[in-house]
């Protein structure tokens, strides 16, 4: 399609690095997408998100359709203009969040009727309405509408949900139509059942998408089960198109997923953790709330070049968190997003240089050391 393409530049084992070209700019892969749920990455200005190295943001259809409304965003010039982010945006379909957040849900072949968690108002989402809402938002990468059943679920329940999602994938493809410069990704389902994953991948490939997501993971199955699926699932998808693992994850999840051939990921974790006093560093997780930081003049991570680490001490970060100051969430979110993007850049460089195994070994060794000892 015009204006949207994926170029694979290098592989190392099953890991890949490349570039997704869109009319709104390049997305270097493997890519981590910060989550801008309500048209904002919480506690960050868009230019600050860009400064961390992010090429693309994720927006949530479910949240935006309820508040402020897709038609309103369209009238105000689309989501990019509305939130002052002119680079690519991927929107989810609303399917996952309607299942996890909405009330009084009624699921039929046609779609899902539900009550808003904001004000109780009634809404309907289907493949067709989801495509229309994502078009109104002006999303660059649109996700097919799917159903993700809560785990644990029986094989039969998962098969049923997956087959419904595949029928919805076809309807999403039909409703999306031909939109040059915009991409539509299909979503593989099937939980942790290999036969269902294979059937799902085949159905999606038959329909044909601009990229393929792996859905239904990071929903409580644990890292080992998730990697177990990724061990074969990425190979079921076309080599020459991007592969997106939805909702992942912790730094070691991200590294393991890239090693297994994933190109894109998103997660609220770095931004959410930043607001609860949790920092992710090369030496693992740091809880800035802990009293051990109260008199510590050292930075969170002496090697990190983010504003939180170059300008402030652990003692300051501890103080502003304890005092409930807004700058606490701002600084820790910036650091966490910066660290995540540093991981992505490190992996992109290592894959290009054929040294990913060594990079991963260092990544794990540094984490195993743990945080610097208290003073
Ligand atoms: Zn930092």
From TrEMBL:
Catalyzed reaction equations: 7-aminomethyl-7-carbaguanine + guanosine(34) in tRNA = 7-aminomethyl-7-carbaguanosine(34) in tRNA + guanine
Keywords: Glycosyltransferase, Metal-binding, Queuosine biosynthesis, Transferase, tRNA processing, Zinc
Stretches the record annotates as RNA binding: 247-253
GO MF annotation terms: metal ion binding; tRNA-guanosine(34) queuine transglycosylase activity
One GO biological process term: tRNA queuosine(34) biosynthetic process
Residue stretches spanning the membrane: none
Cofactor(s) it depends on: Zn(2+)
Pathways per UniProt: tRNA modification; tRNA-queuosine biosynthesis
Binding site for Zn(2+): 304, 306, 309, 335
InterPro entries: ArchSynthase1/Queuine_TRR (IPR050076), TGT (IPR004803), TGT-like_sf (IPR036511), tRNA_ribo_trans-like (IPR002616)
Keyword flag Acetylation: no
Binding residues annotated for substrate, in chain numbering: 92-96, 146, 189, 216
Known EC number: 2.4.2.29
HAMAP family per the UniProt record, alphabetical: Q_tRNA_Tgt
Assembly mode: Homodimer. Within each dimer, one monomer is responsible for RNA recognition and catalysis, while the other monomer binds to the replacement base PreQ1.
Known role: Catalyzes the base-exchange of a guanine (G) residue with the queuine precursor 7-aminomethyl-7-deazaguanine (PreQ1) at position 34 (anticodon wobble position) in tRNAs with GU(N) anticodons (tRNA-Asp, -Asn, -His and -Tyr). Catalysis occurs through a double-displacement mechanism. The nucleophile active site attacks the C1' of nucleotide 34 to detach the guanine base from the RNA, forming a covalent enzyme-RNA intermediate. The proton acceptor active site deprotonates the incoming PreQ1, allowing a nucleophilic attack on the C1' of the ribose to form the product.
Family, similarity comment: Belongs to the queuine tRNA-ribosyltransferase family.
Designated name of the protein: Queuine tRNA-ribosyltransferase
Organism annotation: Paracoccus salipaludis
Lineage: Bacteria, Pseudomonadati, Pseudomonadota, Alphaproteobacteria, Rhodobacterales
């Amino acid at each position: 399609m015009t204006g949207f393409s994926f170029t694979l530049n290098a592989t190392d084992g099953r890991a890949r690095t490349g570039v997704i070209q869109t009319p709104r700019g390049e997305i270097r892969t493997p890519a981590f997408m910060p989550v801008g749920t309500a048209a904002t990455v919480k506690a960050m200005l868009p230019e600050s998100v860009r400064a961390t190295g992010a090429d693309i943001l994720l927006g949530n259809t479910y949240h935006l359709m309820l508040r402020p409304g897709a038609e309103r965003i369209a009238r105000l010039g689309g989501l990019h203009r509305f939130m002052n982010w002119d680079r690519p945006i991927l929107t989810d379909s609303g399917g996952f969040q309607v299942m996890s957040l909405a009330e009084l849900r009624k699921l039929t072949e046609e779609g899902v009727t539900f009550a808003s968690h904001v004000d109780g108002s009634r809404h309907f989402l289907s493949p067709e309405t989801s495509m229309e809402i994502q078009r109104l938002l002006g999303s660059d990468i649109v996700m097919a509408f799917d159903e993700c059943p809560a785990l644990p679920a029986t094989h039969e329940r998962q098969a049923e949900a997956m087959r419904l999602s595949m029928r919805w994938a076809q309807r999403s493809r039909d409703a999306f139509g031909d939109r040059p410069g915009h991409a539509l990704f299909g979503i593989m389902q099937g939980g942790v059942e290999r036969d269902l994953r294979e059937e799902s991948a085949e159905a999606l490939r038959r329909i044909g998408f601009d990229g393929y997501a792996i859905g239904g993971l990071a929903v409580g199955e644990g890292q080992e089960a998730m990697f177990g699926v990724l061990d074969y699932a990425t190979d079921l998808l076309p080599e020459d198109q991007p592969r997106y693992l939805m909702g992942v994850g912790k730094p070691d999840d991200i590294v393991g997923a890239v090693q297994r051939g994933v190109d894109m990921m998103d997660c609220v974790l770095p931004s959410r953790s930043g607001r609860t006093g949790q920092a992710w560093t090369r030496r693992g997780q740091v809880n800035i709330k802990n009293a051990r930081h109260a008199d510590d003049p050292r930075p969170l991570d002496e090697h990190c070049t983010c504003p939180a680490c170059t300008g402030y001490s652990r003692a300051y970060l501890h103080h502003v968190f304890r005092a409930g100051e807004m700058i606490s969430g701002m600084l820790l979110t910036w650091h966490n997003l910066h660290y995540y993007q540093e991981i992505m850049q490190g992996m992109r460089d290592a894959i290009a240089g054929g040294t990913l195994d060594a990079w991963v070994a260092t990544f794990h060794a540094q984490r195993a050391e743990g945080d610097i000892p208290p003073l």
